[in-house]
Amino acid sequence: MAAKKRPAKSKDRQRFPFESLHLDPAVPAPLYRQLEEQLRQAIWQGTLKTNAPLPASRQLASLLNIARNTVIRAYEQLAVEGFIQARPGAGHRVAKVLPARAPSKVKARPDAPAKLEPKLSPKLSRRCTTLARVNDFIGPQRHTAAPLPFRAHLPDYKEFPANIWRQLYSRRLKHSSHFWQLAVHPCGYWPLRQAVADYLVTARGMSVVPEQVVITAGVQQSFELLAKIFIDPGDRVIFEDPAYTPAATVFAMAGATNTYVDVDSEGLVVDALPSNGAKLLYTTPASHFPLGISQSQARRKALLAWASKTSSIILEDDYNGEHRYRGRPLTTLHGMATAGQVIYLGSFSKLLFPALRLGYMVVPETLIEPIAAARWLLDRHSPPLEQAVLTDFINDGHFLRHLRRMRALYAQRQTQCIASLERHLGERLSVEALDGGLHLIAELRAGLKSEAFVAAAKNANVELSAVAQFASEGYAKAQSQLIFGYAAYGEAEMEAAARKLAKPFAELSTL
């Protein structure tokens, strides 16, 4: 008698080919929405069976080469709609009973608020026109995956000692009673101001006392506070060309008249500065933003002499001063100047991790009261708990150890980045090592335009920016310079990204 056919067990059934899911970063819809829609259709069409198990979020992310958060967000939405179910300890499965009908494919996010058409268009101030360039710096409203090579101006937050940070957080929560639930002085948590002053004295050779240190929500807020206490409509503020656009925008919004002065191989061209001075002059002498040039000692002395002669105040943004790979960090302008001549700006976001919105200013003590009043009106103070944890991170020696380790790592990555670019893109551009910083400047071959290359990189799922984004129309080289960030990426990531760019860059070069 013929044997009865054994019913197929679940493991014998044909597995849904999750590797066939195709997500395209070039289309407008976010990756998680694409994944969500493809899984929804597969379930509704029956190719993904009811009660079938779904891969763990980490496994599917690895299979599709996307961020795990992308998978988690897609799963969460499908669960809300009733297409899948989460079982404790057993992961996700397709629901046994599906919704009555498949949701129609929508262009907008289902959780986005309805767009209301106002009866009257709000009348914005004329100064809002200066905000147009800022939109280039703002990403999607929702949380996005990790940055792609070669996005610039980022430290490697993955190398940050997160376990130590968590331990310090826990220690503060356990032993600090309720202090962190109370307000602190607008100029910052006093022990942190002491720790920053001590660091600047010992590591940067500056003459600073804690009373001069103002803790801010990053350097960008420092600009806002300084604009509020210094700028009247029409006041002149001088910037290097190219310069950090978000700084210039803040002062323009306050009514300043911004003036731009060229830089050369030694930094800001002091001879080109106006003889009648300015209310403020903004400079990045340790590592020019974005060209990476270090201002020579001769230029520094000349700049301080000009400031003294014209009674101008210098804003020294030392955002990259600690990221120097050849020799010791350079002497600051503040350390060379007479009292009150220079306001020094620093950022922990570039040194530790981007989400840590803490920075500081070193100002003359006469400015403490007006800055404190302006900060109180703006947002009172930065979170006390984060300030306290950062204090412990500095005082326990973790800050200096982290800086030393990252200097060595970033120096190595700069070399690796140059090698990858020369190997795959050497016929289209040239790139040279810099003494410090988190990015490199590439010069395109004669006749090639940076704008087209930035667009081609985006289509290849690589992030690039152009020097033109930070330059005035008078800066001649703006259209031939690209910015390649390297600090946040490993050798394999940069090699793969450079290889991706080879074909589209070659096609542009033949046009």
Commentary on this structure:
The chain is built from 14 helices and 14 strands. With 511 residues, it is of the alpha/beta class. The protein folds into three domains: 18-94, Orthogonal Bundle (Arc Repressor Mutant, subunit A); 161-400, Aspartate Aminotransferase, domain 2; 402-509, Aspartate Aminotransferase, domain 1 (Alpha-Beta Complex). It has an eight-stranded mixed β-sheet with strand order 3-10-9-8-7-4-5-6, with helices on both faces. It has a four-stranded antiparallel β-sheet with strand order 11-12-14-13, covered by helices on one side. The chain has a two-stranded antiparallel sheet with strand order 1-2. Helix 8 (297-310) links the parallel strand 7 (280-283) and strand 8 (313-317).
Output the keywords.
Arc Repressor Mutant, subunit A; disordered N terminus; 14 strands; Aspartate Aminotransferase, domain 2; Aspartate Aminotransferase, domain 1; four-stranded antiparallel beta sheet; alpha/beta; single chain; eight-stranded mixed beta sheet; 511 residues
Q: What is the fold named in CATH at topology level of the largest domain?
A: Aspartate Aminotransferase, domain 2
Unreliable stretches: 1-13, 102-118
Give the distance, in angstroms, between the N- and C-terminal Cα atoms: 75 Å
Percent of residues in beta strands: 5-15%
- Within the largest sheet, what's the order of strands? 3-10-9-8-7-4-5-6
Number of strands: 14
CATH classification, class level of the largest domain: Alpha Beta
Major pleated sheet: 8 strands, mixed
Strand/helix succession: HHHEEHHEHEHEEEHEHEEHHHEEHEEH
How many helical stretches? Answer: 14
The amount of helix comes to: 25-40%
CATH superfamily of the largest domain: Type I PLP-dependent aspartate aminotransferase-like (Major domain)
Shape: globular
